Amino acid sequence: xxxxVEKKLSELGIKLTAPAAPIANxxxxxxxxxxxxxxxxxxxxxDGKLVAAGQLGGGVSIEDGQKAARAxxxxxxxxxxxxxxxxxxxxxxxxLGGFVxxxxxxxxxxxxxxxxxxxxxxxxxxxxxxxxxxxxxAALPRDAAIEVEGLFExx
Length: 155
Prior knowledge:
By secondary structure, the chain is an alpha+beta fold. Helix content is 30%, strand content 26%.
């Protein structure tokens, strides 16, 4: 039976696919007690292609960056499902950390990161409201426009 969170994802037109495997020496998630930390997820679509490549403020628009951040959030949820088997076990989205591939002087990273934050609130309601950091960086793996990591309280 599909849970409440997966029904919400379906209503939003989102289907979770198998999560991407790590590309280096790390694990996709770690659970300790009731906390689940999910490693940074780049903005891959269901076909494994980047939603946006390059730098914000240097060819990638804020709107495309927001779509990329949303894709990162979907990939975070795929990892959470792989870890827990059931997204209804998420008690709270505690924190998101965003890394925005930014041209020199680009200061609208928080607007870009809203693509991920807005999805968490749309999916989990008040449980999706979270603390957040957004950092502009000079480069990301595969020239991804954005990468997002997450911390979740789980049952």
